[in-house]
Amino acid sequence: MEVIQQLLHEAEQFIYTCYEELGRSRDEAEARLLNIRYDIEATGTYDHTYEELEHGALMAWRNSNRCIGRLFWDKLLVRDARGASDAREVVSELLEHIRIGTNGGKIKPTLTVFRASKPGKPNIRIWNHQLIRYAGYETDQGIIGDPASVDFTQACRDMGWQGAMTPFDILPLVVEAGGRSPELFDIPEHLVMEVAIEHPELSGFASLGLRWYAVPMIADMTLEIGGIIYTAAPFNGWYMGTEIGARNFADTFRYNMLPQVAKLMGLDTTSETTLWRDRALVELNIAVLHSFKKAGVSIVDHHTAAAQFQLFEEREAKAGRMLTGNWTWLIPPLSPATTHIFHSSYDNRLVKPNFGVQEKPYTSRQATSTATDTVQQKRQGCPFHSG
User: Fold this and answer.
1) DSSP strand E in the chain: where?
2) What is the pLDDT of residues 104-154, one digit of tens each?
3) Is 175 helix (H, G, I), strand (E, B) or coil?
4) Share of the chain above pLDDT 70, in %
């Protein structure tokens, strides 16, 4: 009974707010809640209308404390895939999401919602952290590829997948649906847009062989709207350049490219006082921004993103909504003190609808890789911008 009452409370809070924002009357909200109460008491749950689902997803982005890109929350395309029941149907929708979200490089913020968690029914789970991500292979000579993907890559290999063992192998999709064991599906090459990284002035930079996929599509978070939990609701925005240049490529527990960039630049790395890391970091980020723009792929630099967030703050104040945010995630990892965010403070309380973290459906094999991945989850990116 306590669970039912909590669900009713969450539904009421959401419906009243949602309907008010949509310009619907209080009477319409009350009538809708009567139907919801009946459904909850009869079945233990209720279903959102598409209008409620769409606006709830938009509100979830707006309420995402870790996201610097919330200015565009009301431009999100919400796809209703709640009718998909088995893994093949789910994957068909995921591939369509990749196509629509990528949009030839003119990236379109997109969210695809699958069936919600319901009493007595198996959940739909997407095992991937992101729909498109690079594999990581543990070898006697060290890790080949992305260290953040080692555990998931091994899970895929245990299911029979074999990658090419290069630093940039695209992982397959792994989907669990219909109460069946997880199934594995390769992503067609023509759907995966990648950007080769070069530098506008350092001619030897391309010899590093770096590249990155165009769109960050987060696939393993929950979406909670009015007390209803969607365990599969992948979504994407576009990258902020520092997420690739200052994190994915630069972190020592990721691709760790700063020493190689510094060598290419002829920097003195024997002393930290030369600030070789800082100099290499700036050039690496310049290369990422230059390459994405040259390839015609949407991306934003951290100064522009901070200015956009300031405009979001102003619009939220004008709308009479309390702004929430997680300062440690909002500050960019490169030159944070040059943005207003560094000098501001934010209320980090959770406001729903929102996104949440759920446990991995596969087991970490080593405490070391698990710890590294925990650091990765805590600090990198945000729901719509993550490495």
Assistant:
1) 77-80, 110-113, 125-126, 136-139, 142-145, 173-176, 183-185, 194-196, 211-213, 217-218, 221-225, 228-230, 235-236, 239-240, 299-300, 354-357
2) 999 999 999 999 999 999 999 999 999 999 999 999 999 999 999 999 999
3) strand
4) 94
Selection from 303, 351, 347 nearest residue 324 by Cα:
347
Q: Known catalytic residue: 238?
A: yes
d(CA 243, CA 255): 12
End-to-end Cα, the chain, rounded Å: 41
* Candidates 73, 127, 238, 276; catalytic one: 238
- φ/ψ (deg, to 5) at 239: -75, 145
Name the pTM for this structure.
0.95
Tell me the HSE value of 83 on the side-chain side, using a 13 A CA sphere: 5
Per the annotation, the verdict on 26 as an active-site residue is no
pLDDT tens digits, 294-327: 999 999 999 999 999 999 999 999 999 999 999 9
How would DSSP label each residue in 59-89?
A: HHHHT-TT-S-GGGGGG-EEEE-TT--SHHH
Buried b (16+ CB within 10 A) or exposed e, 301-317: bbeebbebbeebbeebe
Single-letter residue type at 88? R
Q: Which of 70, 79, 115, 247 is catalytic?
A: 70
Do residues 243 and 319 lie in contact, with contact meaning Cβ atoms separated by under 8 Å? Answer: no
Please report the pLDDT score of residue 1 as a whole number: 75
- pLDDT of 9 > 60? The answer is yes
Concerning whether 99 is annotated as a catalytic residue, the answer is no
Active-site pick, 176, 243, 283, 313: 243
3-state secondary structure at position 138: strand
* Per annotation, catalytic residue among 67, 79, 115, 127: 67
Mean pLDDT for the chain?
A: 94
Nearest residue to 239 (alpha-carbon basis) of 197, 277, 185, 188: 197
- Mark out the alpha helices in 120-181 (DSSP H runs): 150-158
**pLDDT for 363:** 72
| Residue 224 pLDDT greater than 70, yes or no | yes
Of 306, 166, 333, nearest in space to 249 by CA:
333
Assess whether pLDDT exceeds 50 at residue 233: yes
